[in-house]
DNA sequence: AAAGGATACAACCGCCCCACA
DNA sequence: GTGTGGGGCGGTTGTATCCTT
């Protein structure tokens, strides 16, 4: 039986205070990242090591870019998601200053909704899998079902199968087997009819016109 | 102005991967 | 080859804030 990553008793949970943030920053500034399990004790924090790591990686690191995602960033996320699936760390790795958690949250709260509105299945980026007007489902708002996503086992074979060879290359890169990989990704989208949707994406701030809602594009949006 | 619903996002949980002994 | 521990990842939850009625 695996022992827990930390002694849960006596550890703080929930939002980080300014003092805790400062302690973590100060410690890492002096000692550097790593040894997360022993870090909390050494830094005088009553936190789980994982919690410290997450806080640092996602919010305290000096090179983190905060604020809204630019349109080109959003486009890139969509493209990379079509290529890689829910491999947020890989996607975030190609967005300088963005973290996997931030990309994941942005996908779930903004992009996924947007794609659904456009009649695109956010899971496979194909058209017509989703109705343009999803029927309301009587579930809790934060549940995955409310976003038309069924609960599934972690790293299902289905999910893995969806990942392309290119994704495998990215895995290789991460593990150091490939020194450098240029995907050659650009922000450009295919020409009509798919660019019609792209235009719509850019024009769709929040309100869809009835004309847009009635539109159904005949082919796959991003990748063929 | 108040209540309820919707949304955004910070944080936690638990599983998996990998290095190392 | 196997077991173990540390770190990383993706899924999920909790809650603060915003929006609508």
Automatic annotation (TrEMBL):
Name of encoding gene: LOC110425713
Subunit structure: Can form complexes with MYC2, MYC3 or MYC4.
Keywords: DNA-binding, Nucleus, Repeat, Transcription, Transcription regulation
Matches recorded under InterPro entries: Homeodomain-like_sf, Myb_dom, Myb_TF_plants, SANT/Myb
Compositional bias ranges of the Polar residues kind: 137-146
Species whose genome carries this gene: Herrania umbratica
Gene3D superfamilies associated with the record: Homeodomain-like (1.10.10.60)
Protein name: Transcription repressor MYB6-like
GO process terms (BP): regulation of primary metabolic process; response to other organism
Cellular localization per UniProt: Nucleus
GO CC aspect terms: nucleus
Domain HTH myb-type: 8-60, 61-115
Pfam families, per database record: Myb_DNA-binding
Example of a GO MF term: transcription cis-regulatory region binding
Keyword Kinase attached: no
Domain Myb-like: 8-60, 61-111
Spans annotated as Disordered: 126-171
Entries under PANTHER family matching the protein: TRANSCRIPTION FACTOR MYB8-RELATED-RELATED, TRANSCRIPTION REPRESSOR MYB4-LIKE
Domain of life: Eukaryota
CDD domains cross-referenced by the UniProt entry: SANT
């Amino acid at each position: 039986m695996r022992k827990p990553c930390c002694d849960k008793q006596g550890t703080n949970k929930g939002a980080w205070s300014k003092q805790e943030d400062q302690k973590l920053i100060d410690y890492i500034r002096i000692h550097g990242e790593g040894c997360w399990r022993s870090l909390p004790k050494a830094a005088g924090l009553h936190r789980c090591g994982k919690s410290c790591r997450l806080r640092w990686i996602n919010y305290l690191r000096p090179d983190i870019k905060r604020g809204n995602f630019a349109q080109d960033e959003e486009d890139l996320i969509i493209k990379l998601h079509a290529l890689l699936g829910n491999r947020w760390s890989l996607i975030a790795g190609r967005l300088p200053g963005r973290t996997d958690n931030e990309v994941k949250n942005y996908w779930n709260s903004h992009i996924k909704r947007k794609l659904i509105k456009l009649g695109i299945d956010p899971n496979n980026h194909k058209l017509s899998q989703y109705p343009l007007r999803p029927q309301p489902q009587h579930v809790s708002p934060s549940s995955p079902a409310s976003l038309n996503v069924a609960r599934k086992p972690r790293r299902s074979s289905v999910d893995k199968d969806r990942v392309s060879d290119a994704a495998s290359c990215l895995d290789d890169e991460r593990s150091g087997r490939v020194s450098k990989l240029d995907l050659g990704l650009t922000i450009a989208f295919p020409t009509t009819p798919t660019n019609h949707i792209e235009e719509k994406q850019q024009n769709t701030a929040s309100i869809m016109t009835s004309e847009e809602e009635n539109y159904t594009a005949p082919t796959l949006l991003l990748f063929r």
